[in-house]
Amino acid sequence: MKRTAKPNRRVKGNFAKGEVITIDDDEPAIEQPVVKNVKKEKQPPVQSSPALSVAELQEKLKKSEEKCQRAIHIAGQHLARAEHLEKLIDTKPDVSQDAIIEDLKKKLGEVTNELVDERQRGDEERQRGGERIADLTRQLEAEKVRALEGRNVLYERMNVLTDDLE
């Protein structure tokens, strides 16, 4: 009788003397020499007491139920986490909306800076215009004074000429 095993697997079992084990790894089977001193694994003695095996089975059942309860509890926690994450994803604004908002904030900042610059330029021009008005007003007053003085000079000459003619 031949037994075959897959590569890298341990072959278990009791083999009679003279049996050959072949391993199928896509190479021709090589006959192995007979091993004479094969140690047999010792199995624990079979318990004949039915009460003892029932107690063991009940203990295994209890452990299995505890494992099942823990697994159910952990699965519930994972489910709650998943639901929470789904709610977060649903309430989170779209990435494109965030990008649009950031772009609008940037543009608002630029327009605000331009407005401040224009206001400063307007204030400077108003100040220069006020100074120009003050200069022109002084020049006008000076011209008025000169005109009055020239008129007075003309009246005096006229009076002198009129007196000479008379």
From TrEMBL:
Name recorded for this polypeptide: Uncharacterized protein
Species whose genome carries this gene: Pristionchus mayeri
Native organism taxonomy: Eukaryota, Metazoa, Ecdysozoa, Nematoda, Chromadorea
